[in-house]
Known about the structure:
There is one protein chain. The chain is mainly alpha-helical. The protein has ten helices and three strands. Strands 1-2-3 form a three-stranded antiparallel beta sheet, with helices on one face. α2 packs antiparallel against α7, α8 crosses α9 (158-168) and α9 (158-168) packs across α10.
Amino acid sequence: xxxxxxxxxxxxxxxxxxxxxxxxxxxxxxxxxxxxxxxxxxxxxxxxxxxxxxxxxxxxxxxxxxxxxxxxxxxxxxxxxxxxxxxxxxxxxxxxxxxxxxxxxxxxxxxxxxxxxxxxxxxxxxxxxxxxxxxxxxxxxxxxxxxxxxxxxxxxxxxxxxxxxxxxxxxxxxxxxxxxxxxxxxxxxxxxxxxxxxxxxxxxxxxxxxxxxxxxxxxxxxxxxxxxxx
Length: 230
């Protein structure tokens, strides 16, 4: 299976793909055709900015209850070299990279920085060739898979962890509903339920709606992980 098959995208301009897969060390090799004398560093520069935007947009939609701080923390994980290298590995990108002889020994080690840079360059190449939509189609399922690994991060509150878990399984967002409110206006108590796929997964109470939702989400996490593989 070729790289375009693995990407699920056909380039109209194959030169963009060749450049994205060409490490600067390969340009010193006599075997490289003159028309291919462009490495992936400029594309990597553009891809870095595109990746930040795509991930930010994805997280904004996927985690509506997460604070700015939590979104920033998760974003930093998703755009890291480690994450990019894992994504590149899933696409078997190392098999298509063009490296100089001195760099080829890194193929077996799947050197993180080279793979991460090539992944950013590939994102830019797809964007220049076909626009934003094919980039989004490529990255969205990969980002959902990475979110699966981040759902238990302690810095996330219960609602955000539940949102990450549900999003990673391709399920519609949790639905919270206030069941009742009791007590005086200055000291109320709220009872809230949370549903996923129409099923009540948890109930909670608190002195504010947000507090009750957090408790319900915590119960839902336990219920989900009892009924499903987590």
